[in-house]
């Protein structure tokens, strides 16, 4: 899946969409990632719903345009966002400044080590929890022979800390995020038609890895000499945690179903023997699963009791309400279905809003003149996303 073309223009657009949902969102918790950037506002203000289960409005603002396959999003302490472009190998800085056209976009780094092809390239990005002092960011990227996790100070060369993650035309994984325990997690892809790597405990493919910032196995891993936290994955492209420190991951490009999993230490999620729920009882079932044609989900984010995931083939966001004991309340709600095309990255911003990226500048997409875009969602109920 290659990039179609590049653009540099940025602008804003705002619409208000109605969503039928029983979810409720309180004010965002203490900010650990930074302050909100100086955001352009929606042209129409959303009105909160007064009744649970009623109509909730969501303000949608296009923050930036003309990007090329934006894959990962992470926030700096000043409220600006770092955004990776898969095929150009650029790290873009978005905000915190803005002008009449939207948030300012500039190139923060370009990684010459990256070799982009298929769904490989410059993928996930995570900001060091100690960024204020170490100025370090972490990236997941593809070379011609493998996938790697590396660290860098913006403007300097990347230093690989994990190498040898299997590389293939597709199913390269790429999710990267710091957990609430302070350790770095990476989601990898199996990358083989038969799924032979996901069940091999000695292979890094088809796994979620947990590591120190030096790329070593983190204390408390299932096997103390191994990076592997969980196994049996097809293609992990999204990781997040909710306020209870429960971990969620997306499963992308399985033939039948795209999954949203609750990830637990040492669990096996079944690929290639399991695809969706109930297909192999000895493996861990997903929290939710949708037919691949309606989903193929990438990024995932959590806000209060809501867990949301952005979908490529489905061209929508699925949102589910997860109770304290881990069960799904009601049916999944849909947002932005077909309105912006393929959706990939999805993250919770420091101000409690959601940021989502489109992925139309690739062979499977149908880009319009504004693609690719970064979009901000603000929920009217409970004040999420207030700035």
Automatic annotation (TrEMBL):
Residues 28-52 are annotated as: Disordered. The keyword Signal applies. Residues 1-26 form the signal peptide. InterPro entries: 6-blade_b-propeller_TolB-like (IPR011042), Glc/Sorbosone_DH (IPR012938), Quinoprot_gluc/sorb_DH_b-prop (IPR011041). The keyword Signal applies. Coiled coil: none annotated. Pfam families: GSDH. Residues 67-362 form the Glucose/Sorbosone dehydrogenase domain. Keywords: Signal. SUPFAM superfamilies: Soluble quinoprotein glucose dehydrogenase. This is Glucose/arabinose dehydrogenase. It comes from Actinoplanes octamycinicus.
